[in-house]
Design the sequence.
């Protein structure tokens, strides 16, 4: 074979090999591109599925939140209704205490007046409060009752559970006058009237008039002299008793030991004739002293 021909064949084969090599590389590149496209499509599909799942999960969460909010609203409404009913019942209880009827006309038969008496005890419950301290409790009870009576006559709002409507726009004074005449004026049979009387009386007690009381512009009496008045009266009573007994004292050491039967209705029975007192013959001694007394004795008078 000649050299030129050999070189030509070598060149031809070389070109053919290069061409085949290039074609092979192009096929591989195309295959790789196809694989990449398939991967991209798979990723896109996965992303689409993920987005759809997220949307569905978000919608479910929104629905759960809406249901939770509805439940909370229902619970709040139920609590409000229950609280309103409790307020209505408390108002009814307060009115029942304020408008309780007196038994036999006695104010202390009502629960509210009885409770006010408990407020009159000291913190240690060993003594009663002074008038100047207890009056403030009465004023508080009176003020609260006035507000309750005003709300009863002219309700600021309706009380559905009690069947009470809101106050009307007309005849308000007539409604208030009706409640006032029944419970709030002097002479009414109610605890409110009793509280007014007690407060007025305790204000008089708590008021300080000083140490000297005068009348007529001339006569005066100090507190020291007033305190001596009981002692003076006791002395006068003892003196009169001694004159009536003609200076005689019965043989009794303690009057608490005197026996007497109030249930004994027998004719002639008396504590004087009771043998347990040992004074059945004491009248003889009293008669003797009456006869020989220096002050108008009975024997000289012929009695």
Sequence:
């Amino acid at each position: 074979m000649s050299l030129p021909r050999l070189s030509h064949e070598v060149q031809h084969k070389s070109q053919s090999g290069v061409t085949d090599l290039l074609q092979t590389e192009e096929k591989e590149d195309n295959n790789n591109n196809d694989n990449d496209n398939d991967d991209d499509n798979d990723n896109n599909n996965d992303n689409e599925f993920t987005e759809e799942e997220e949307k569905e999960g978000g919608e479910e969460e929104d629905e759960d939140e809406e249901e939770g909010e509805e439940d909370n609203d229902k619970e709040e409404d139920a609590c409000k209704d229950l609280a309103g009913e409790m307020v209505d019942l408390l108002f009814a209880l307060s009115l029942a205490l304020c408008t309780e009827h007196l038994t036999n006309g006695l104010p202390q038969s009502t629960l509210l007046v009885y409770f006010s008496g408990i407020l009159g005890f000291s913190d240690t419950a060993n003594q009663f409060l002074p008038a100047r301290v207890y009056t403030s409790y009465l004023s508080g009870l009176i003020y609260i009752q006035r507000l309750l009576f005003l709300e009863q006559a002219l309700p600021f709002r309706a009380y559905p559970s009690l069947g009470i409507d809101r106050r009307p726009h007309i005849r308000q004074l007539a409604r208030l006058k009706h409640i006032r005449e029944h419970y709030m004026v002097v002479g009414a049979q109610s605890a409110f009237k009793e509280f007014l009387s007690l407060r007025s009386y305790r204000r008089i007690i708590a008021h300080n008039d000083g140490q000297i009381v005068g009348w007529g512009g001339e006569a005066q009496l100090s507190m020291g002299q007033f305190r001596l008045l009981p002692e003076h009266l006791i002395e006068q009573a003892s003196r009169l008793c001694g004159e009536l007994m003609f200076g005689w004292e019965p043989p009794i050491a303690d009057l608490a030991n005197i026996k007497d039967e109030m249930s004994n209705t027998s004719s002639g029975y008396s504590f004087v004739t009771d043998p347990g007192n040992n004074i059945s013959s004491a009248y003889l001694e009293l008669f003797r002293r009456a006869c020989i007394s220096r002050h108008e004795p009975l024997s000289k008078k012929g009695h």
The radius of gyration is 56 Å. Residues 90-208 form one domain.
